[in-house]
Specification:
With 339 residues, the protein is mainly beta. The chain is built from no helices and 22 strands.
């Protein structure tokens, strides 16, 4: 029998210094059940003690068929540990991990997407390579796209920072957008597949008609047992839309999914339809659209930041099979091998 592991966390900040003591954990899924399924955590308009502010936080972990997957997204981050000499801003910090069964063996992959990162007022460019170190002086250890193989699988942090005191001892640790996935393959070339599963995860931003950012994070789809699961958060200028439960899920084509949510827009109950497309790496051709009965609507291509991941375990239904689960057969998303 195939078993799964996974966890995702949007933000984790711990400090144990004379000037600041804190332990902040935001949008953490907890551990995925070994039998699979899904767990998620999402927040919007976050302000944690004035130390961590963010527009949208989203985390999800899932396991089904021959695939375990986790993702974490942080949008509009403003982190202020000025008492310890650290400030961080970012438009988008996002990580994805996958664990697939290929020929009966676990194959791990993952990556991070980073847009508009500044540390202590200095712009930091992400190379896209794993474990990219950034030299910001002797008291800060900074790693972008940190990738670590653990006993359970692969863990990816979009941003990892350790703050040191003058003696070189750690006094604070910052982790933004951490995802971890692992799988133990059952019998057969791709493990023992349960009923079909098909789901999307992702986050990023599009521009509204006035050119203002609209940040979003989402996850949704059908689990192996046929249950629909999903939520979303969207924050734009003067609007907060929140999907509270997934009502319907369907495949429009091999790359596009339609998700219908019971939702609220600025606190008023409504229904929203999201259409998202996974058009390949690195996500800049992916698209997002939302249309709510309340009248709110926005759409666009994620050309400036973000990624939609469509996950179709190899035993999922094809598009022609229809049903809630939509398409299948693509395998472990678009992550490829471990970078």
């Amino acid at each position: 029998m195939t078993t799964y592991s996974g966890q995702a966390t949007a933000v984790r900040v711990s400090a144990n210094a004379l000037l600041l003591k804190t332990n902040i954990i935001l949008s953490d899924t907890g551990q995925l059940d070994s039998t699979g399924g899904s767990k998620d955590a999402t927040l919007a308009n976050v302000n944690a003690s004035g130390l961590v502010k963010a527009s949208v936080l989203n985390a999800a972990t899932m396991g089904s068929g021959n695939l375990a997957n986790s993702m974490a997204s942080t949008l509009g981050l403003d982190l202020d540990l000025g008492l310890l000499g650290l400030t961080v801003g970012a438009g988008l910090l996002q990580s994805f991990t996958w664990a697939d069964c290929l020929d009966g063996q676990a194959a791990l992959s993952g990556y991070a997407d980073i847009v508009g990162l500044t540390i202590n007022g200095k712009s930091v460019e992400a190379s896209g390579h794993p474990n990219q170190g950034v030299d910001l002086g002797p008291l800060l250890q900074v790693i972008l796209n940190r990738q670590v193989e653990t006993a359970k699988g692969l863990q990816v942090d979009a941003l990892y920072i350790k703050v040191l005191d003058l003696l070189g001892k750690p006094v604070a640790e910052v982790v933004v957008s951490r995802s971890e996935s692992g799988i133990n393959c059952g019998s057969g070339p791709d493990g023992v597949c349960p009923a079909p599963a098909d789901f999307v995860t992702g986050g990023g931003f599009v521009l509204d008609g006035s050119g203002r950012k609209v940040n979003f994070g989402l996850h949704g789809g059908v689990r192996g047992d046929g249950e629909l699961r999903g939520r979303f958060n969207l924050v734009g200028s003067g609007v907060h839309a929140q999907g509270q439960s997934l009502l319907a899920y369907s495949a429009l084509d091999e790359t596009t999914r339609r998700l219908t949510y019971a939702a609220t827009v600025n606190g008023q109950a409504t229904q929203c339809i999201l259409e998202v497309a996974d058009n390949g790496e690195p996500g800049r051709d992916d698209s997002f659209a939302i249309d709510c009965d309340s009248g709110y609507a926005v759409s666009g291509v994620l050309s400036q930041g973000g990624n939609i991941q469509l996950h179709k375990p190899s035993c999922a239904l094809s598009v022609e099979d229809g049903g809630n689960s939509g398409g299948g057969g693509k395998g472990g998303g678009k992550g490829g091998g471990k970078k």
